[in-house]
Amino acid sequence: MSTLAIDKAGPRRKVKYGSMKSDRAWALRWSYFFLVVFAIFSLTPPLYMLITSLKSSAEISAATNPWWVFHPTLSNYIELLTSNQFLRFFWNSAIVSVVVVAITMLISVPAAFALARMRFWGSATLATGVFLTYLIPDSLLFIPLFKMLATVQEWTGIPLLNRWYVLLFIYPTLTVPFCTWIMIGYFASIPKELDEAAIIDGASWFQTLTRIFIPVALPGLIAATIFAFTVSWAQFLYPLVFTTSTDQLVMPVGIITSLIKGDVFNWGQIMTGALLGAAPPLIIYAFLMDYYIAGLTAGATKG
Amino acid sequence: MADVVVEQGRLARSAGTRKRASLHHALKRKSTVAFLMTLPLILLIALLVLYPAFYSVHLATLNKSMQKFVGFGNFTFLFKRETFWMVVRQSCLFAITAVVFKALIGFIVAHFVHNIPAKGQRKWRGMLLVPWVIPPAMSTLAWLWLFDPSYSAFNYTLSYFGIGPIPWLGEAGWARFSVILVNVWYGAPFFMIMYLAALKSVPEQLYEAAAIDGANWFQRIWYVTLPMMRNIIAITTLFSLIVTFANFDIVRILTSGGPLDQTHIFATWAFRVGIESSDIPLGASVSLFMVPILAIAAIFILRDINKRGNEA
Amino acid sequence: MAEVNLRKVVKRYDDVEAVRGIDLDIADHEFVVLVGPSGCGKSTTLRMIAGLEDITDGDIMIGGDVVNDVPPKDRDIAMVFQNYALYPHMTVAENMSFGLRLKHYPKAEIKSRVTEAARMLDITDLIDRKPKQLSGGQRQRVAMGRAIVRNPKVFLFDEPLSNLDAKLRVQMRIEIKKVHQKVRTTTVYVTHDQVEAMTLADRVVVMNKGRIEQIGTPNELYHKPATRFVAGFIGSPAMNFIPCRLEEASGRLNIRLTDRLSFPLPPARAARYRNVPRDDRLLMGIRPEHLTEPRAPEPGIETFESVLDVTEPMGMETLVYFTLEGSQICGRVSPGAGASDGSPMRLAVDLNNMHLLNEGTGVVL
User: Fold this and answer.
1) Burial, B165: exposed, middle or buried (Cβ in 10 Å; 0-12, 13-18, 19+)?
2) Which end of chain B is more exposed for a tag (fewer CB within 10 A), N or C?
3) C13 and chain A in contact, CB less than 8 A
4) Min CA distance, B193 vs chain A (Å)?
5) Are C109 and C51 in contact (CB under 8 A)?
């Protein structure tokens, strides 16, 4: 009886140990399998953009295997990159995004410094308010903003509607609150003694900001810059509402309104345009992925 | 003895007031500097966020030509329209379904990424986040092309299995499915990244302790992972709920609300009514219906974020 | 270089009084250590001298000038922080010269001062490294270097050694003392570690609950503590306090510890305690080093026997613990004295070095 029990205990333990090991191997295999499935799901649209962009109109309308390019051609790229209209969209997008990034940083970095370090009356409420502002979506504001712009244009005679530069004032409402919020988090994580040391060394508040805080919080600053740029580059609703003439359009709206002519879809060119429009954020992401992700997760983890 | 104490007290007090005055001055200076540094932020928020928000309430009470005050007229008009109720239903269905699937897929994928050896994780994470990086207006164009009625690459593939052709965007049920699918495709990576960051912050010893206590993988997730990630899950979900509920790009480009307004959500219908049909007050009224849901989500997010702060 | 004077300095946060009226005069070239448990107000006092905290009441003078409303940068002070507070994006040289560069000193002057300070602290080889590439002790040296190059009127140290391991702490303690001997700058040093205080200071200021308990040289504090707090705080292991009372028997003054244990006081002590009211609640304070195995008999040394609870061999000595009337008493005996756990031992108490305290007021009589 007792020997039987011991016999039983021996192999059972061994089997269990072995099964745990193979469990782990199987778990790993399943993980890779599902990761491949999800990666295909994630990458299908951008890959399909690339495939289509390399096809001629003839090949597309011939309805051959859509997943393969039989006669690759760069004609779509050549056509778009030599089209003044398309270059105009690209240029508008670039200048709007770059200027918005600059405005955003000029507003949010000093504000974040003041809110993180120089306690003053109402500063805590203001910090919370900044975060709440970030939660107000563009789709709530586009109608009153449209009407406001129209009214101001009427009063002052300054053309605002259908002008790309109006986006320079509107986009910061999307970028500044979040950038301020994450910069508050980054600044707050700098030890208090560091600014005390700077003050004793004779630095003014402004010098503490420019010579200590900005260099030390540089990763946060890069993350905020990337965020501001990608948001400005991707914004679709505001330019769709506020601009209409083809010379005033930015990339996303330009591609959709100018390349889709009525019911005629030139898919080769649309996909080429979409890919070129997606290129700047993708390139930034490829080189600065860690900063990109840091900025993404900062909103919730740096509270 | 007592006199001396009183005397000292009085001296101290007079010295105190003198000092407080100059101290007050210094404080005032510091807070003035701080206020000036935040002034552009305050102006921006006040002029271009808060003012338009309240202005849209005002707009919602005017008639179409914006000449006459009609009170709740726009709202009572909306309540009587079948399309409005369809938009309400579709918005809720769209937001809730999409967020649930984003959260689930994000959670599962994050676990798979967390499972594999650390040195390969960066590569996979990099690939899986691509949908979030592409401007949604651009990627939705690719989906539009994938869903194309005559050249759909999906239908081409499915025909090999004898399925289809599926009217991806042509029929109400499929169109609703498609807009949700694209939204899930776009938003799931965000959840994945947030969860992955949270998973990394759970100390390995907790899992080892749970394993020694005899917990299986499901119990480890249920009793260790989920409680540790509770806050991140809550914040991410609420945040995504706001963004999804207010979504515009995907539905606008994919279906423009069609077929027969059956995929409209608040943002796209507000655009249709307010901008395309030039009835600004009615458009403002439509978009204002987002406020209650956004406000509730915002309150819960704020509560969770404050809780995080207190824990730390 | 200059003296520092505090006159009735008070610091109040909302309704908490962190510092309750401190008077302190620090002479030129002096090295003063503020010591006390956490929350005693020592760091707040230092930060008020630095100008990092506003003072609620009183006056602070540096070099004879009242600096109450002078911002830190104009007080001509330098400070070394507990976590070093080195600027992480600057090299060692840049860290050290930051203050001078802000004041637009000539380049050559900056360079010579940095080189000189680096040489003094033995960090010349590290001058181009970033703080991240330095060990704890090296960072500590850089932080000191940053203070030295400024050539300020006063050095302020805020628990500078607390983040170092025990061995490095001893080494840096010596380093700080050497630097002070060379530059002779007036120094205020805050620590919670009484060993650091005793080894570094010209004078030690013992603080408790926002007040100064006692100011004195290390020897004065050790031999003539003014209060129970100081007596208990200075010295390790801490002084034993045993409830006792004074008795007059056949014209001599005795000290009675228990029903069975009483010792005649030596003449000098007896004379000192003659006028202490007999019914006051008293404590006998006796340091472990005055509670040993019996050695050569001397006047004032009395012996008694007790059962040891625990012994702790330390190598050069053995700490023995026993219980007397419910309180745990510590003694220090030679390793060869044959002390072992649970066994009785004969012990000698040196009454020439005892203290008598009023239990109610905590004053040493």
Assistant:
1) middle
2) N
3) no
4) 7
5) no
* C54 vs B contacts (CB less than 8 Å): 23, 26
Structurally, at CATH architecture level, domain A75-301 sits in Orthogonal Bundle (1.10)
Give A270-287 pLDDT, tens digit per residue.
Answer: 888 899 989 999 998 888
- Whether the complex's predicted ipTM is more than 0.85 is answered with no
Whether the ω angle into residue B165 lies within 30 degrees of 0, i.e. cis, is: yes
Q: Stretch C305-326: mean pLDDT, rounded?
A: 88
pLDDT tens per residue, range C4-53: 988 888 888 888 888 888 898 998 889 999 998 888 888 889 999 988 88
Buried b (16+ CB within 10 A) or exposed e, A259-268: bbeeeebbbb
Q: What pLDDT shows up at residue B182?
A: 92
- H helical segments located in chain B: 2-45, 51-59, 73-79, 82-115, 118-128, 130-133, 136-146, 153-159, 172-200, 204-212, 217-220, 226-245, 249-254, 266-271, 280-288, 291-311
In degrees rounded to 5, what are phi and psi of residue B70? -120, 5
Q: Measure CA of the first residue to CA of the last residue in chain C; give whole Å.
A: 39
Q: Is residue B64 part of a domain?
A: no
- Residue B24 lies in domain: 1-59
Residues of C in contact with B29 (CB under 8 A): none
Question: Which residues of chain B lie closer than 8 angstroms to C8, CB-CB?
Answer: 12
The fold of C240-358 is OB fold (Dihydrolipoamide Acetyltransferase, E2P) (2.40.50)
Q: Chains near A, with 3+ CB pairs < 8 A?
A: B, C
Q: What is the CATH number of the domain that holds B175?
A: 1.10.3720.10
Q: C4-225 adopts what CATH topology?
A: Rossmann fold (3.40.50)
Mind telling me how many Å the CA of A1 is from chain B's nearest CA?
Answer: 28
* Whether the predicted pLDDT of A169 surpasses 50: yes
Distance of CA B130 to the CA centre of its chain: 19
- For residue C225, what are its two tokens? 């503590």
Task: Please compute, for residue A241, the number of CA atoms within 13 A of its CA located in the half-sphere on the CB side.
Answer: 34
A181-195, A213-227, A251-265: which range is least confident on average? Answer: A251-265
Whether B34 is covered by a domain: the verdict is: yes
CB C152 within 8 A of CB C78: yes
Chain C residues lying within 8 Å of A207, measured CB to CB: 102
A170-194: average pLDDT: 89
Residues recorded for chain B: 312
State whether B27 and B116 are in the same domain: no
> Mind telling me how many Å the CA of B54 is from chain C's nearest CA?
39
**Is residue B8 very low, low, confident or very high in pLDDT (cuts 50, 70, 90)?**
very low
Tokens 């020694």, located at residue: B212
* Residues 202-231 (B) with a CB less than 8 A from some CB of A: none
How far out from the chain centre does Cα A80 lie? Answer: 24
Task: Say whether both B133 and B242 belong to one domain.
Answer: yes
The answer to whether B21 faces chain C, any CB pair under 8 Å, is no
Tell me if residue C215 falls in helix, strand or coil: strand
The answer to whether B275 contacts chain A (CB < 8 Å) is: yes
Distance CA A41, CA B120 (A): 19
Question: What residue of B is the nearest CA neighbor of A120?
Answer: B31
- Give the helix/strand (H/E) hosting C206: strand C203-208
- Both tokens of A185, joined, read 């988090």
Chains with 3 or more CB pairs closer than 8 angstroms to B?
A, C
CB-CB under 8 Å, B22 with C57: no
Domain count, chain B: 2
Secondary structure of residue A178 in the 3-state scheme: helix
Structure token pair of residue B67 = 């000449």
Strand order in the sheet with C282-286: C262-264, C252-256, C240-249, C282-286, C355-358
The residue extents of the domains of chain A are 2-45, 75-301
Q: Which of B128, B157, B308 has the CB atom closest to A42's CB atom?
A: B128
